[in-house]
Amino acid sequence: MRAFLNVSGVTNCENLALWLNLCAESTISSQQWQRLRPEQMPGVARLRGYPWPYTEGLTLGEAMHPLTMLATGVYGKPLPKQNGAPIRLVVPWKYGFKSGKSLVEIELTDKQPKTLWETLSPEEYPFEANVDPAIPHARWSQATERVVDSGDRIRTLPLNGYAAQLSGLYKK
Fold it and tell me: Where are the alpha helices (DSSP H) in the chain?
């Protein structure tokens, strides 16, 4: 994995509690994953984290998208345990629960995995989980979010503001 570590990025991240913050990461980019010959891979990535039977999943298109990152550090330092060391998935257009922490295994499969959060509460945590202000969470509106440093409330943007970059990924 160390051979892949040459990319840094700053992205907007949002969690279901409607807080928006910037994530600065040392990452393994999806372009680097292209070396793995994705055209020969199944259609879904299943990610398993430690310590519990934590599982998360993305379509292969989502996993290979240039905005998707595997974070190994933050602010120029190795990723601490509380932030998801050794590897954390970062998918900035999805809600925070899709950004799996402490990943120990990535499996490519042809079947959509049952994710931990989807298993616990499918009406609140669906597999897709794209940021969409028009779809309320089961317990609150997601039309606005709070900026972490100022506390200001701002309008939530579809796909967390990345709609133009993701236009080919989701066809309706």
Answer: 30-33, 60-63, 116-120
